[in-house]
Amino acid sequence: MVGQRQYPxxxxxxxxxxxxxxxxxxxxPLAPAFTLIELLIVIAIIGLLISILVPAxxxxxEVSRRTVCGSNLRQFGIALLNxxxxxxxxxxxxxxxxxxxxxxxxxxxAQQNSSxxxxxxxxxxxxxxxxxxxxxxxxxxxxxxxxxxxxxxPKIMLCPSDRFNNPPGTRYTGVAPFNKLWDxxxxxxxxxxxxxxxxxxxxxxxxxxxxxxxxxxxxxRGDFIAMADQSNDKDLAESSFQYLTPExxxxxxxxxxxxxxxxxxxxxxxxxTFAHVQDLSNRYWGPIIATKARYPDPVLNPDNRRxxxxxxxx
Length: 314
Description:
The chain is α+β, with helices and mostly antiparallel strands. The protein is built from six helices and eight strands. The chain has helices at about 35-85, 105-110, 120-130, 130-135, 195-205, 275-290, and strands at about 165, 180-185, 205, 210-215, 225-230, 255-260, 265-270, 310-314. The strands form two sheets. The protein has a five-stranded antiparallel sheet with strand order 7-6-5-4-8, with helices on both faces. It has a three-stranded mixed sheet with strand order 1-2-3. The termini are far apart. The mean pLDDT is about 85.
């Protein structure tokens, strides 16, 4: 337009096809990054921390499981003493149905057996002696409606660290990878425990993690052993402690032990070898072996020892 002042076009004028001026770009600073060496150092530190924490966490879990195991034994101890109060001071033990007048030593020798009246081994004693009212006398065995009489719950029969055990009365050599061990199997009712040895052999399961010393009375010495973690060895002899292996309830570290006064203590082993486990055997079986018999039997117990009048079952 004539007479009107002309201004230069704006670089942002959309009517222009190209900007009339190139504005400089502002360079952004590069983000900081790890070098390869720094990354490797971080990975190494994380690996070191994991190697320190994982064993500590594993030990903490085992201590927790060991505490639960000790609680199980303590509840067993209370139940055993309550049973004794109702049964002329005798702790639970199997009788000989065909020999009601059998000596104490004769009854002790039969505690691992089964009969028409009792299931096999320690599980049979729990089923048909301690909780007989539920499993044999209530008339509600199949329905499972009767409440336990002495033991609070079947779950206390298993140590939380226990995964498998030797079949009762047999030895585990450890040569083959656990093919001679039976898996543990929890039950929800005591009547689910095997009623006969044939049922137990067919199931090939183990239902209890502890050994039991039968034929005690509640007026025996309070420091005598009543129960303990069983091993995967044959825990039937007087000196039932032979070896501890990594497959046992608490590995080779030791066992929980219930004494007749119903208190539980942790018995630590250095390595689990025969020599070190024999230290535990001497500690707990030594006083029993040194005690005179309460019920003399010149035929079955000529040496007059209290140890012959009791029997370890598993």
